[in-house]
Every structure is written in structure tokens, then in C-alpha cells.
Amino acid sequence: MPITSKYSDEKVENILAEVAAVLDKHGAGPDLSLMIAGNIATNVINKNVAASQRKAIAEKFAQALLSSIKDNIH
């Protein structure tokens, strides 16, 4: 069953494009971009999720990330 988001694809794509433009402006390569993305995720979890739920949310986030990666190994 597909996951339905409460956010429109257009809104997500617009924000993603803006973030990508900032990273490009600063010449952030893949390693720095991933470090920044990880720091953003950590900050969002630490500031907006109850301490008792942080580990579970981080694990769900990590699983969603793994699920979204395109595996080209056959």
C-alpha cells in the first residue's frame, strides 16, 4: 500500500529545489550535503520530538531512507 503524504508533491519539490540551490551555491559536494542533511534531521528530531520517542522516530527515518535508495545491484 503506497504511503500518502499530507504535503503536495509540488510543495516538497519546491522546497527540495531551494535547498539544492543553496547547497550548490556553497559548492557542497555529496559528503557535505549528506552531513548537512543528517544534521538537519538530528536537529528536527531533538527539537520537535519528545525524548522518549526520538530513538523510534530516528529508526523509522533511517528505514525510510534505506527503502528510498535505488539499489542498482542485480
Automatic annotation (TrEMBL):
NCBIfam families registered for this protein in UniProt: PRK13689.1
Protein name (record): UPF0352 protein DZ860_17190
Annotated Gene3D superfamilies: YejL-like
Residues forming coiled coils: none
Top-level taxonomy: Bacteria, Pseudomonadati, Pseudomonadota, Gammaproteobacteria, Vibrionales
Family: Belongs to the UPF0352 family.
InterPro entries hit by this protein: UPF0352 (IPR009857), YejL_sf (IPR023202)
Residue intervals passing through the bilayer: none
Organism: Vibrio sinensis
Superkingdom of source: Bacteria
